[in-house]
Request: fold
Amino acid sequence: MKVVTANRLLDGEVVWQGADGAWVELLSLAHVLEGKDEVAKAMELATQSIADREVVEAYAMDVTQDEGRIVPVRLREMIRAAGPTTHPELGKQARASAV
Reply:
């Protein structure tokens, strides 16, 4: 399983591609892709978003599911999904809890 991630060009925020192709700020809202064809189609949308200067550095990353949650496989992606590591109140998890 994979999701497509990038950084939003406007503010550098880590984002993921949602089910409708829009970029979302929480990994839990990302569209999980299964199979090479789904990944290729999602990357086509991401390439267009790069051309439209919405995002930069888009790529597909490996994920698993744990109790219904999308979980990154690599440590780097876990850190990106959690948000800045400079202060716990600044991370994505803190913002998601406040909503």
